[in-house]
Design goal:
Layout lengths: L3 E2 L10 E7 L3 E6 L4 E5 L6 E9 L12 E8 L11 E11 L2 E11 L8 E4 L2
Antiparallel strand pairs: 1-9, 2-3, 3-4, 4-9, 5-8, 6-7, 7-8
Length: about 120
């Protein structure tokens, strides 16, 4: 069984058989060839990282090859921090098939000493 960190670009060309969102903490992608990818955050003491928004229908990613799979992030240096914690990071995942586009936006905040990043792992 595979259990390794992966890049979201590893999904390029894959055809998904299933996508499942578990609240605001995890999204699982299963491919037709038996691979399974999980997007999540390994929670620690003094940070909070959750799915802030999903724009588009995750089910539009099922049944056709993934044509776009990319990650873009911005941190507090790029935004004015007046309404946020000491440190924060926005992470955007962009996916597309011929059926549609989906943008998944994660928001992480902390006291500046903990990770605000999102993990992407291949588990099968």
């Amino acid at each position: 069984m595979v259990n390794r960190y992966a890049n979201v670009s590893d999904m390029l060309g894959a055809t998904l058989s299933r996508v499942h969102q578990d609240g605001d903490e995890e999204i699982t992608f299963e491919t037709n060839d038996g691979r399974r990818f999980v997007m999540f955050h390994e929670q620690d003491c003094c940070e909070n990282v959750t799915i802030d928004d999903v724009v588009g229908d995750l089910q539009s990613l099922v049944g056709n090859p993934i044509l776009v799979a990319e990650e873009v992030s911005s941190d507090d240096e790029e935004f004015e921090a007046k309404n946020y914690a000491e440190s924060f990071t926005w992470t955007f995942y962009k996916f597309a098939t011929i059926k549609g586009h989906v943008d998944i936006k994660w928001f992480g905040s902390s006291n500046g000493y903990y990770s605000e990043g999102v993990s992407f792992r291949q588990t099968a």
